[in-house]
Amino acid sequence: MGNQVSTKWLGNMRFESTNPSGHNLFIDAGEENGGKSEGYRPKALMLSALAGCSGLDVASLIKKMKLDVDDFNIDIDANLTDEHPKYYDKLEMHFHFYGAKLNEKKLQKAVDLSIEKYCGVMEMFRQFSELKIETYFHKK
């Protein structure tokens, strides 16, 4: 298959997980669940993976399209179901672009290409979650 990570228990509720990049990350539960909050929460990592996946697409397209963007960020607000197994059944994803010379049409095209075509993590989320995606332009 070729896509591998290895996750090792470090005792209590803490784990260390490898990544093909060579940068390992730590996972831990919060104190309310017997951990010490010394690592990432697994479900929240999924949201970071979604933002990161789409963000990489958009950053690549900004470069290819030679767009003038001072900064951009992606905010995600997700709803977790009440019943076990808990999962994100709804989420809102907001793309924020900042700059004096924002080409709104091309930036929207970049976001659309990511969410509709390129982002595999987005496609995975589509299987179990209702997605609402909005783009905001902040001209300086």
Describe this structure in words.
It contains three helices and six strands, in the order βββαββααβ. The chain has 140 residues and is α+β, with helices and mostly antiparallel strands. The strands form two sheets. A three-stranded antiparallel sheet has the order 1-2-3, with no helix packed on it. Strands 4-5-6 form a three-stranded mixed sheet, with helices on one face. The chain is globular. Helix 1 crosses helix 2 and helix 1 crosses helix 3. The protein folds into two domains: 40 residues; 98 residues, 2-Layer Sandwich (GMP Synthetase, Chain A, domain 3), CATH 3.30.300.20.
Summed up, the domain count is 2
Question: Helix segment count?
Answer: 3
SSE string, helices as H and strands as E:
EEEHEEHHE
Shape, please? globular
Uncertain stretches: none
What spatial order of strands do you see in the largest sheet?
A: 1-2-3
Largest sheet: 3 strands, antiparallel
In short:
With 140 residues, the protein is of the alpha+beta class.
For the structure shown, list the relevant keywords.
GMP Synthetase, Chain A, domain 3; OsmC family protein; 140 residues; 2 domains; alpha+beta; three-stranded mixed beta sheet; three-stranded antiparallel beta sheet
SSE order and pairing:
Elements: E1 7-9, E2 15-17, E3 25-27, H1 42-64, E4 71-80, E5 88-99, H2 104-118, H3 120-126, E6 130-139
Parallel strand pairs: 5-6
Antiparallel strand pairs: 1-2, 2-3, 4-5
Helix pairs in contact: 1-2, 1-3
